[in-house]
Amino acid sequence: MVSGSHRRSLNVLFAALLAAVVLVATALPAAAMTVTFVRHGESASNASHTIDNSIPGAHLTPLGQAQSAAVAAALAANGADYDAIYTSNMVRTIETAAPFATATGLTPTALPGFREINAGWFEGWSDAGPGGIGYVLAPALWTLGARSVRVPGGGDGNAFDGRVDAALRLVEDSGAQNPVVFSHAATIMFWAMMNVDNPDLGLMLRHRLDNTETVVVQGSAEEGWTLTNWAGLPVGPTSLGTKLFVAARDLVVAPQTAAYRVAQAFGSGDIRAIATAIRDGVGAVVRAPVRFAVTVVRDVVDEVDKVIRPSAPETTTTSDTGVTALPSRIAGPAEVSEPEPADEAPVKTLRTTRTVKKPGRPATAPRVRDTTEVKRAGRPADGAANAA
After folding, report:
1. What kind of fold does domain 30-232 have according to CATH?
2. Residue positions annotated with a catalytic role
């Protein structure tokens, strides 16, 4: 028979072990994902070269449907074990995902966070000339760290980055390790260059994403993201200059993000949320210069060490991701990224479920679940969708 003192000792030991397990579990970094972003096929607005962010938006053209079938075949043939499909809440991404969903048996989940950047005043303009330039000017500044700049009549970089990050957290929380996200050109390009630790801003100038081209990133919301492939082009290692640029950008982004979150908290009217946002914001701003100094010193020392110490011969590998690169492009006209509804607009939380491929599933058209209620923009139903 166990005495009372022994029982108490066992209880204490069990509690200590449980606490240790919880501590270790919370300290472990989130498992890295490989996210393959796919731009949608040609839509009617692309064909007419019109910037249009109406929701649900224009349908794919016959060429866009053919592009969707081609990219589905390319994805299925490259040997990657894709385990989830996500789309934005716009028709063109849902239709683009359909052939791939049929081929894999996976059920797409629509997340509004993956929609296109709001075009603001440039809604309805041609994607060429002043309209196209004006539309992407603010997002280009976001990639340099000026996230508080707003698209005229639209949102700023903080709101844009926040809602894409939130959508990716839902994907991560679902347990997916190799998801495919069907989204839009501006959203994919600018989010990637704002967040990866090896941005090459020249890629957007040298190779803007065409219909159904892909961008692959690896990482997690906690550990950060690394760009591995851009439209079929492998992305090389990060140079010292890029590392220093990212460190400086993170330094100037910290106070902007803190101010944005405090403003959002005040807008909610929740006293506790306001206090938390202020506390977290002050902490982030105070830590930013320290992190900047440590990062710069570490990166410079590492670079000097590489020069002083001869490195061992490197083994050539075909791909950091282990995934065969997709064709550079599927035939179709180039387009400018399409706009989206206001970034600040509240978006209802969607249920995210991970689906598992079932053997022997008939090749029926996939069913897309989008639990959000989005008001259609005040435009005629036959208006062309955004050009992105």
Report:
1. Rossmann fold (3.40.50)
2. 40, 116
